[in-house]
Amino acid sequence: xxxxxxxxxxxxxxxxxxxxxxxxxxxxxxxxxxxxxxxxxxxxxxxxxxxxxxxxxxxxxxxxxxxxxxxxxxxxxxxxxxxxxxxxxxxxxxxxxxxxxxxxxxxxxxxxxxxxxxxxxxxxxxxxxxxxxxxxxxxxxxxxxxxxxxxxxxxxxxxxxxxxxxxxxxxxxxxxxxxxxxxxxxxxxxxxxxxxxxxxxxxxxxxxxxxxxxxxxxxxxxxxxxxxxxxxxxxxxxxxxxxxxxxxxxxxxxxxxxxxxxxxxxxxxxxx
Length: 272
Prior knowledge:
There is one protein chain. This protein is an alpha+beta fold. It folds into two domains: about 10-115 and about 245-265, 3-Layer(aba) Sandwich (Aminopeptidase); about 125-220, Aminopeptidase, CATH 3.40.630.30. It has eight helices and twelve strands. The strands form three sheets. Strands 5, 6, 10, 11 and 12 form a five-stranded mixed β-sheet that branches. The chain is globular, with a radius of gyration of 19 Å. Mean pLDDT is about 90; it is low at about 1-5, about 255-260 and about 265-270.
């Protein structure tokens, strides 16, 4: 990460103060808390404004910035401290209110609107009706293809190795699967088109939630707002909507330039 104003954000390895800050707003900061739960961790680095008493935390993972702040003032300091790459700045799971703050200093080029869903363990309504097993490592290329990110085979291989996964096979053919992302969020849910409406997606998601709960992990996901089938599936299992967030590509304002954002509303369940 390159800073526009060096020294404003500080890279840290002592995560005690970071955890305390994130835990003060547990639902709002689910994504960043999820990163810290993973073993081994799958992020590049963590920066804060104050190592002893942070009011802003930035985690960079897979080329995306994940931001948690105490207020709009802290957010403004973060946004002007980040120098964009050639493509711009990419923010993942940015609370919708912070997008408005970002627009004070940046043009939003693309925005993918999502709901944040969280499952309180006591609300879980399991629906397991099929035999489920873990994904096989050699399925990583197929998973990446069905996810719509064929270039992300290595990432998918890492998720199969390091995070719980659940899949349904018939005659050795993969017909449904779901994984956890590097931040612990449930994602990549897919069912073969010819086998949809048979409850396969509910079965693999139920099995994955059971595994996460057994490990004491957070159970949450992001769903693109137009993805009604996924919303119904997760709400049917007991998940509740707790926030509205965006995946954003932004660039600093240019004098005299006005940019209208591309708003994505028809993407799959995963925004990254």
